[in-house]
Design brief:
Structural class: mainly beta
Strand content: 25-35%
Strand order of the largest sheet: 4-3-2-1-5
Radius of gyration: 16 Å
Order of helices and strands: EEEEEHEEEEEH
Number of domains: 2
Largest sheet: 5 strands, antiparallel
């Protein structure tokens, strides 16, 4: 990943598949500081994350695909067609159609992406090959929606 793709609050993979919560993006020296759960780390990685804090080059990070499992854990409901939806208070409506590899039953490339609508703003991203958690977090932030995604 590139440092310009990230912002504080993003969740990305570090090392093999350890979820890292970004707490600082240092564009000047191109490093990203994040927190990891030490209980999830292999013993050989513990020395790189003292106290659960990691400072890394962003090229060592990988985006987390936004999957149906993640959406379900966060209260989204599958509509039986192609979309995952969440309706909230004050007119909040979020629709996601993520790509899941090798599952042509519900993948529709023309509508892959997400839509966030509320009384403040509308965000729409369509026609991408894969939607990632950090992209979705950015859209939620731009739409002034607070949601701590459970990975």
């Amino acid at each position: 990943m590139r440092v310009t793709e990230l912002m504080v609050g993003d969740k990305v993979y570090w090392a093999t598949n350890v979820v890292m919560f970004v707490i600082d993006v240092r564009r000047s020296d191109k490093t990203v500081v994040g927190m990891v759960n030490e209980k999830e780390l292999d013993p050989e990685l513990l020395e790189y994350a003292p106290g659960g804090i990691v400072s890394v080059d962003p090229s060592g990070l990988n985006p987390i695909p936004l999957t149906p499992e993640i959406l379900e854990r966060n209260g989204f409901k599958y509509d039986g067609m192609a979309d995952w939806k969440l309706e909230g208070k004050d007119g909040l409506f979020i629709k996601v159609c993520p790509v899941q590899p090798n599952n042509d039953d519900w993948w529709h490339p023309s509508s892959t992406g997400f839509e966030v609508n509320n009384s403040i703003s509308d965000i729409l991203l369509e026609g991408v090959e894969q939607v990632y958690v950090h992209q979705f977090q950015h859209a939620l932030t731009m739409a002034n929606v607070e949601m701590n995604l459970i990975i």
